[in-house]
Amino acid sequence: MPEYNVRGRIITGYLKFVKKKWGSEGVRSCIALTKEMDLTMVQGDKWYPIEYSDRIIEWMAKEHGMESVRQSGLATATEIGVIKYLARIAGIKNVLERGHQELRENFDFGEAHFETFDDHAMVHFKGVTRIKVSCVAWSGAFAGILQITGNKSGKVTEIECEHEGGKECVFKLIYKT
């Protein structure tokens, strides 16, 4: 089986959310349940096996429910400081059109296709989510992208899922421009 990797910034983003939501005890609990992985030494620009981030979101789902997984995805998109400001200026279409490049910078596997329209976008992932709970985190991340681009009332729906028999994971993002 091929090895799939993510940038450390994905892992540290999830851990920051865990710490903010459940404190240092939550981080210790999460790290204890991720077995042999040393999450305390993760560096943002280095590559790590996807299992690192998968186990963190699996821990969140098990210990705190799927809504916490969605919130973690949203937090990774909305708590990036200056990027929030730039995203609002750039607008939803420009941010989403850069999505493929962002995916390549942070994940060394899978395929993505982004289609933008006047009032919605379609995001197609093939092989990007390794486990079903990842789809929930992505849904939250897309909701975060809507928020930082000024679409606070936007909506994200997963309309097809590889983990439920679909050919790919497809997310529909409804927004106003």
Structural account:
This protein is of the alpha+beta class and 177 residues long. The protein contains seven helices and six strands, in the order βαβαααααββαββ. The protein has two domains: 5-77; 91-174, H-NOX domain. The protein has a four-stranded antiparallel sheet. Strands 1-2 form a two-stranded antiparallel sheet. Strand 3 and strand 4 form a beta hairpin. The chain is globular.
Rg, alpha carbons: 16 Å
> Strand sequence of the main sheet, in spatial order?
3-4-6-5
Beginning-to-end CA distance, first to last residue: 43 Å
Number of strands: 6
Residue runs with pLDDT of under 50 for 5 or more positions:
none
The main β sheet shows up as:
4 strands, antiparallel
Globally, the shape reads globular
CATH architecture of the largest domain: Alpha-Beta Complex
Q: Which CATH top level class of the largest domain fits?
A: Alpha Beta
Indicate the structural class: alpha+beta
Average pLDDT works out at 88
How many structural domains can be distinguished in the coordinates? 2
Helix content: 40-55%
The helix tally amounts to 7
SSE order and pairing:
Layout: E1 5-7, H1 8-33, E2 47-49, H2 51-64, H3 66-78, H4 82-90, H5 92-97, H6 99-106, E3 111-116, E4 120-126, H7 132-148, E5 155-160, E6 169-174
Antiparallel strand pairs: 1-2, 3-4, 4-6, 5-6
Helix pairs in contact: 1-2, 1-3, 2-3, 3-7
